[in-house]
Amino acid sequence: MIEIDSDTLEAKLIRLLLEEKPITIKELARELHISEKKLERVVKGLVSRGIVQIEGKGDKRYVRLLRKDISFHGINPSQEKPLKHKRSKRAKKKEENNRSKDMMYR
């Protein structure tokens, strides 16, 4: 069983390979919105670990998933803490005005 952090580029790549059948490196880079060089570094790391395989030459290089026993773990950093939304000055003023009006009628 291979464990991979769920918020890494490797995890995104593996999820795409699990969904789709053969896909070229160019298509993967376009799908993940990254450069081909960066994608090739990630793919080489996965090839050295025996998770994926590159087939073909030139522009027609396909990436194929070799192992299906992959589990994703970890929490996306954006999910760890609730987001704090800032209110605009206009919204703050409006809220203050509403409070002062409510106080008059109590």
Structure, briefly:
By secondary structure, the chain is α+β, with helices and mostly antiparallel strands. The chain is built from 5 helices and 5 strands, in the order E-H-E-H-H-E-E-E-H-H. A hairpin with a 6-residue loop joins strand 3 (52-55) and strand 4.
Provide the gyration radius in Å: 24 Å
Sheet with the most strands, sense and barrel status: 3 strands, antiparallel
Unreliable residue runs: none
Please identify, by name, the CATH architecture of the domain at 2-75.
Answer: Orthogonal Bundle
CATH topology of the domain at 2-75, anyone? Arc Repressor Mutant, subunit A
Using the coordinates above, name the CATH class of the domain at 2-75. Answer: Mainly Alpha
Instruction: Indicate the structural class.
Output: alpha+beta
Strand order of the largest sheet: 2-4-3
- Output the helix-strand order: EHEHHEEEHH
Q: How widely separated are the two ends?
A: 65 Å
Total helices: the number is 5
Find the CATH superfamily of the domain at 2-75: Winged helix-like DNA-binding domain superfamily/Winged helix DNA-binding domain
Q: pLDDT average, as an integer?
A: 79
